Amino acid sequence: MTITQCAPDELLQNKRPASQAVLIDVRTPAEFETAHINGSRNLPLDLLQKSPSTVASSLPESAILLCQSGTRSQQAAQTLTQAGAEHFQTLNGGINAFVQAGGELLRGRQHWAMERQVRMGAGALVTTGILASHFIHPKLKWLSFGVGSGLVFAAATNTCGMSYALSRMPWNRTESDPTLESVLQSIPDATGTL
Predict the structure, then answer these.
(1) Cys-Cys link to 133, which of 17, 77, 140, 183 (CB 3.0-4.6 A)?
(2) In this structure, which CATH number among 3.40.1080.10, 3.30.450.20, 3.30.70.20, 3.40.250.10 belongs to the domain 4-110+174-186?
(3) 63-66/41-42 β-pairing
């Protein structure tokens, strides 16, 4: 199975979000609460990765996976393909591209985007490592080296351990985090069973 991409302007021109396409947003619940495409359903990547076979068997042919920029939806697509999913697309460029193409988002309580949290966390750790190595102990410089190495690994593998860890922090949770069962029940024509 090859993963196909849906262009943001195609989504806008066809007016598909609520009526024909099933939009699966794999960002964290807090990111989804901050802003999302009308009609999309939140199935966080970590939740999808816990039961990929169940999700793969439940996706209708009109499913489109999306995230902020396209990275996490590609990870979700690879996971679902390995689990046997046959019919779905990813939104090329994610929500960022959707907004640039003229799409509007439903907005709720504001949270920092995961990318911004990762930049803040990495920057704080590097700065702490440098200052601590100067004022406390020289070996603390290795903290900065570790963060830098982690960023290189994240870029090379297109994964991010820091975002994975940050997604589990209390500020990235909402009062009503989705469950796999609740998301799958909300998908029209879902064929999988729990």
Answers:
(1) 140
(2) 3.40.250.10
(3) unpaired
